[in-house]
Design brief:
This protein is mainly α. It is built from eight helices and two strands; from the N terminus they run H-H-H-H-E-E-H-H-H-H. Helix content is about 60%, strand content about 5%. The mean pLDDT is about 90. This is Winged helix-turn-helix transcriptional regulator.
Amino acid sequence: MKTIERRSTCPINYSVEIFGDKWMLLLLRDLMFNGKNSFLEFRASDEKISSAVLTEKLNILLNEGIVSKVTSPKNASKFLYLLTEKGIELVPFMVEFLNWGSKYNPDGGPKSLLERIKKNKKKAITELQDKLRSQQHAYTENRINAF
């Protein structure tokens, strides 16, 4: 697995080294806003990430503790990627990215989420984080109950 070589201890540098390319932000988008969790779902995104790049980026997210990898309860040969608490803490950041992007590119974005954000950003963020925590908890419970 590829590890990130840190250039410095600067917090901004740390963030840029993890999220400083388009693929990481698009993977977070798919996990947070589009309900995607599997390798094939990520590959089916409009941006057409290659399998090699996707594997590399998922491994970085795993190594950094931003996602966890669990076996699908429906198919034991399929893995799902879920945001950890560390990843869920990125929701406010991604909401701001979504907001900014929708302001200057109004043709895109999840309309219902954007409307909820405009109405009450803090509530929309909390609801999204709670939904992601519930998802993580449900898969964790399924794994525990399987034993």
